[in-house]
Write a structure and sequence with these properties.
- The chain has a domain of 64 residues: YefM-like fold (3-Layer(aba) Sandwich), CATH 3.40.1620.
- It contains six helices and three strands; from the N terminus they run E-H-H-E-E-H-H-H-H.
- Strands 1-2-3 form a three-stranded mixed beta sheet.
- A hairpin with a 2-residue loop joins strand 2 and strand 3.
- The longest helix is centred in the last third of the chain and has 17 residues.
- 1% of the residues are buried.
Length: 125
């Protein structure tokens, strides 16, 4: 962390801004810290505003104290259909499980089937 007094800061503001992109710069007045210069180059404006907003962080703290709600409850509050109970939708137990093409399980199954067929035809291994 760099430190610079106010008079030097006024003369070397450009250099201090560049230095603040790499590390914090403390500006002192009469030997005491007066401000900290923190570089934010490359960050989104919105992120900077929220990161430095006391009201935003107070809201976050309040929300964290509340009891969380389930996705189903959130859907109910927003009057959205519950994905698990859509009319005409098959439940997960009713859906036919089919392996993806090229999956490891499918390849292993093909090998087992081929080896069984080879043995039943009388081929030697």
């Amino acid at each position: 962390m760099k430190s610079i007094n106010v008079r030097d800061f006024q003369k070397k503001i450009r250099e201090c801004v560049e230095a603040a992109q790499k590390e914090r710069v403390v500006v002192t007045r009469h030997g005491r810290p007066a401000l900290i210069l923190i570089g934010v180059e490359g960050q989104d404006w919105e992120d900077i505003v929220y990161q430095t907003s006391p009201a935003f962080w107070e809201m976050i703290e309040e929300r964290r104290k509340e009891k969380p709600i389930s996705l189903g409850e959130m859907r109910r509050r927003l009057d959205l259909p519950n994905k698990r109970s859509r009319p005409g939708d098959k439940s997960s137990s009713q859906r036919q499980q089919t392996p993806l093409r090229g999956s490891r399980a499918e390849g292993n199954q093909r090998k087992k089937t081929a080896s069984r067929q080879g043995r039943s035809r009388g081929s030697k291994r």
